[in-house]
Amino acid sequence: MADILTPALGESVTEATIAKWTKKVGDAVKKDELLVELETDKVSLEVVAPADGVLGAINAAEGDTVVPGTVLGSVTEGGAAAAAAPAPAPAPAKAAKAEAKAAPAAAASSIDITVPVMGESVAEGSMGKWLKKSGDAVKKDELLVEIETDKVAVEVSAPADGVLTIAADEGATVTPGQKIGSVSGSGAAASAPAAAAPAPAAAPANTGSAQVSGGKNDTLSPAVQRVVAENNLDPKAIAATGPKGNITKADAIAAIGQAAPAPAAAAAPSAPRAVGPREERVKMTRLRQTIARRLKESQNTAAQLTTFNEVDMTNVMALRAQYKEVFEKRHGVKLGFMSFFTKAVVAALHEIPAVNAEIDGTDIIYKNHYDIGVAVGTEKGLVVPVLRDADTLSLAGIEKGIGALGKAARDGALTMDQLQGGTFTITNGGTYGSLMSTPILNAPQSGILGMHNIVQRPMAINGEVKIRPMMYLALSYDHRIVDGKEAVTFLVRIKELLEDPQRALLDL
After folding, report:
1. Which of residues 274 and 40 earns the better pLDDT score?
2. Which of 195, 337, 421, 506 has fewest C-beta within 10 Å?
3. pLDDT, tens digit, for every residue of 357-416?
4. Closest CA to 152 of 380, 374, 378
């Protein structure tokens, strides 16, 4: 007998939730065949069979919380042939009697729906809207409700076929492991006769890659199912790169741009919009509550002050226009403004180390590394992934790093390590058309640079009025550690490096 163990879940990830078993107890399995999918607060993990045999036991049901090393179940080795042989032997009458005996047991059973683990340091969540009502029939893996946390929205699916009973109302605060409902087995018995007839014909297709190639979403993880459903993708057309030919979330996302546009469906007559009050009260998501709390804590803790300057972008824009095509051919990435700003920020941080420091009690911690946070707006809120060791990167390396972090942020694939440990932050409100702002510090950092929209404005140049592409810069800083002179010098240094990019090449 071989145990099925929970693998290591990654740095700083201590627990996971059983998302889906692809086999039932008694099913024949092959070594390295996908058996169970685990969901953590950041990624999905796949656990495969340790040997050929029969799935002898499942110790952790879907929705249960497990830690590395937990025994999820076991495989009885060498039992595949024995399990497969008796299948055609029973006479139809005996099979019918066996099903009749199994039906009452299924009807009497009830499986709890519990709150899954919601991520490291996340202790509670809020119930979203149930997609089904108590008494409704549900199918296994059908989405029932989303739980909002301060980091992510966690999907909860039906653990089995049956009838739903709801135990936690919309808006209620719940904790990991708490029972929020149950599914009774009575719904499964009703559908059993219909499924019994075609079972022999469908049996050969019950292998991992064949189900995917047949276009069924049964073998797709919940995260992949969601991407496929929201973008009308055909699983048969997605190139699979996961273990044993499984489709990963990255495969599904990559297929979005390649998928042929689906024919427009006939517009269904929409129901008239209900006339409601002139105001609407909506509960904040957990992520939005966390953003609000952290920003207010930052304002209450640091002595925040903002200083402004403006930069003439003429030379940077000319340099970018001259080399952008050659740069992209050489490095495989577009040359943007963020790499110039990051280089200028790192040079200024070297000169004014107080802006790259933080306060810890009565001590000042000066950082000798330059990990730059880059604010990224997503559908669920603002996140700040960190570009590590930016001082060692070329312009191409910075552009590639920022591009990868931005994509991971939008896909919801950032790890906790990518969100922690920044020493300074850059936020670019100019992408949304912002002319000027006073950014709030990303605690415990002591400085944040705000970039803004580039606007053609008349400027006095050597006694003449000329039209120049100008950008306002804003540096918010913690006045407890950074003096006004240091802050102004820091911002002027950035202005000089951007208006004369050759200075950076000459280290001037």
Report:
1. 40
2. 506
3. 999 989 999 999 999 999 988 887 888 999 999 999 999 999 999 999 998 888 878 887
4. 380
Structure confidence at residue 89 as a pLDDT band (50, 70, 90): very low
Contacts of 240 (CB under 8 A, 6+ apart): 209, 212, 246, 247, 248, 251
DSSP alpha helix (H) spans, 18-154: 80-84, 92-108
Per the structure block, which two tokens stand in for 468?
A: 């120049």
The residue type found at 269 is P
One-letter amino acid at 32 equals D
Mark out the alpha helices in 332-470 (DSSP H runs).
Answer: 337-351, 395-411, 416-419
Count CB neighbours of 106 within 10 A. Answer: 18
- Closest C-alpha to 139, from 155, 154, 157: 157
Please provide the distance, in angstroms rounded to a whole number, between the alpha carbons at the two ends of the chain.
Answer: 69
Does residue 483 have an active-site annotation?
Answer: yes
Clarify whether 479 is annotated catalytic.
Answer: yes
3-state secondary structure of 311: strand
Burial zone of 83 (CB within 10 Å; 0-12 exposed, 13-18 middle, 19+ buried): middle
C-alpha to C-alpha distance for 227 and 218, rounded to whole angstroms: 14
* 247-268 pLDDT per residue, tens: 777 677 777 766 544 444 445 5
77: confidence class by pLDDT, cuts 50, 70, 90: confident
Q: DSSP label at 480? A: T
Q: What is the 3-state secondary structure (H, E, C) of 216-257?
A: CCCCCCHHHHHHHHHCCCCHHHCCCCCHHHCCCHHHHHHHHC
Lowest mean pLDDT among 173-182, 221-230, 430-439: 221-230
> What does the block give as tokens for 466?
């000329």
pLDDT at site 466 = 95
Peptide bond into 444 cis (omega under 30): yes
* Contact residues for 420 (Cβ-Cβ < 8 A; gap 6+): 386
List the catalytic residue out of 3, 483, 500, 507.
483
Report whether pLDDT(188) > 50.
no
Whether the CB-CB separation of 164 and 136 falls below 8 Å is answered with: yes
